[in-house]
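Weekly structure sync, notes
Attendees: PL, DS, HV (note-taker this week)

Item 1: Pre-mRNA-processing factor 17
DS walked through the input record. Source organism listed as Panicum miliaceum. Sequence as pasted into the shared doc:
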Amino acid sequence: MDLLQSSYAPDDASSPEDSAAASSPDSSPLRLPSKSAAPAVDDTALALSAAASASRPLDPSLHLVAFNPTADQLWAPIVGPQHPHAPISSASGNRNHKLGHVEDAAVLPFLFDEQYNTFHRFGYASDPSGLHIVGDAQPQAPEPDTVYNLAPSEHKRRRLLAKADNQEELLPPEAKNPASDEWILHNKQSPWAGKKEAPPAELTEEQKQYAEAHAAKKAEKEARGEGKGERAEVVVKSTFHGKEERDYQGRSWITPPKDAKASNGHCYIPKRCVHEWVGHTKGVSAIRFFPKYGHLLLSASMDCKIKIWDVLESRTCMRTYMGHSKAVRDISFSNDGTKFLSAGYDRNIQYWDTETGQVISTFSTGKVPYVVKLNPDEDKQHILLAGMSDKKIVQWDMKSGQITQEYDQHLGAVNTITFVDNNRRFVTSSDDKSLRVWEFGIPVVIKYISEAHMHSMPSIALHPNSNWLAAQSLDNQILIYSTKERFQLNKKKRFAGHIVAGYACQVNFSPDGRFVMSGDGEGSCWFWDWKSCRRFKTLKCHNGVCIGCEWHPLETSKVATCGWDGVIKYW
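Item 1 (cont.): predicted structure, written out as tokens:
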């Protein structure tokens, strides 16, 4: 015991009171120092996490807190999530590179090209952060211009300034002296810039010949009355090409044969071309058979001429009508065929006598007529309707020559006029992609048809039973409308397959109503079955556009077609 006490005796530096207390019997017994067999633990990371937890705000959604928060943390306001694009310090441990944290950055090709071209054009560009301008030149505006956001006028102004600077460098020294003539010529601020008269140069022989030819043409135009915008007067004339205008019995050459009648009420699709009429020098725009009999065929052409051809016997040109100064757009027979109307791009509508070739009367409003039509009623054959380029349908009384009515509701040029409902109403189509139904004589639309899917309809034909209208739509299809009160679209009947977009190809019916036919922009004539809407046959007719097709009223398997190649073919 003494040995133990001596080994644990207090140091010499300790006070006597301490030693007396240790040796007194009333003091506590002696205790050995504690020893732990557990391995040493590094609590640095724990201390750091505790420090971080003590510094960050509490998440209000937590149900269990793993440390003792302070009062400031408990009463601190709710803090949102950390900003995803906030700068991250490498001290926080989010390192993805040996030098710290590297952010991914992407530049669109358009933005890169914009700054690249701006730098090479103006000498400055914006860095990817958008906060600084790099380059030797500095923009004058607070928001720097780029090559893509400059207006065309600014591009032009800068280009002219650059050109002027280059020209100033090339100017002679005399041009910089305001007192010299060179300065007057080259200074843009001078009102006489570039206007100093120089001695006239000698013309070459070629230039002299051209000037003389131009002066001769000008004098010739002035002699014809065209020099001051006046329209040259067209001499109306007609030439008869047949053998004789009257036969031995005194009958006119337009008289139909007495034995002409329908051989069979059943129509058939033609198979081959039996004749070609070649006489027009330019494209043929319209053809019409003689009403009821079809022994004559009238054709209008872009060579300003109208010709009538014999169909049954000699199959030659019988008469040529010349009265238009520009291309003929449309023609229309009267009910008996003794007279017909023609509309030309010279803005005139002419009423012809078919037999003699004389112009009975001429009508004009100063606009181009696109379609002409006579009222089909026998007692109203003197009433003319014309669809004009100025969106109007004009009605004339040909006896008095006065305009009796104007139908002005369309928003585009009028293309077709079709009489329905026993000629009490008529349907018009226009470039405004709509159909309008009018009561004859009353300029108020009683039915307006316009849908988002509709296209312009440059040709409309009436079915022989008068219950349906076939409209050639410029989206390469033929639509069928009812002629009853509602004029409803028949969605079950649609004829397609041909290409007519951009061309006013005529649509027509066979006399028995079993077939629908139409030309197309590739020179073919298409035939469809009316009931099944299936394509029946396609004939390659013309080199170019097949613009018109007509079924013979009596010959049930004969069809005439015309095209822009100037040929009329009989199938």
